[in-house]
Amino acid sequence: MPDITRAEFVPMSTTAALPPFDLADPPEDPPEACVDLTMWATARELFAEHQPVDGSCESCGTTDAPCSGLELAVQGLQAACGVRTRTWDFWTHLMQVRAELGSR
Question: Which end of the chain is more exposed for a tag (fewer CB within 10 A), N or C?
């Protein structure tokens, strides 16, 4: 399991709340606080793809822990629950593009 803690959460504002799930072990199903189910599913899939195996990420081939894919996924899970993260704009734009294309 990756070493991601709530202490690593960097809110975009002082009014942001902590995510309603364990960052190191998010549930497969979105929590009640999830405001974007598609974003949750996308980020959760990315999270699963970037789990380290024997000290490295098989998806991106790095030994960095956590890898950038896993960090992006964790921030996407938080964004899906309305928590503003460093990648908030990326995730909201991605969901907008997906909606416009009619995918997932």
Answer: N
Q: How many structural domains is the chain composed of?
A: 1
Instruction: Map residue 12 onto helix, strand or coil.
Output: coil
Confidence of residue 4 (pLDDT cuts 50, 70, 90): very low
Give the domain extent around 66.
32-101
User: What pTM was computed for the model?
Assistant: 0.79
Q: Phi-psi region for residue 61, left (φ > 0), alpha (ψ -120 to 50) or beta?
A: left
Residues 6+ positions from 8 with CB-CB distance below 8 Å: 23
Give the model's pLDDT for residue 12: 41
DSSP state of 104: -
- In sequence order, the β-bridge partners of residue 56 are 53
Q: Residue 57 pairs with which residues in a beta bridge?
A: 52
Mean pLDDT calculated for residue range 21-41: 94
Q: Look at residue 66 and tell me if it is in a domain.
A: yes
Q: What is the mean pLDDT of residues 38-52?
A: 96
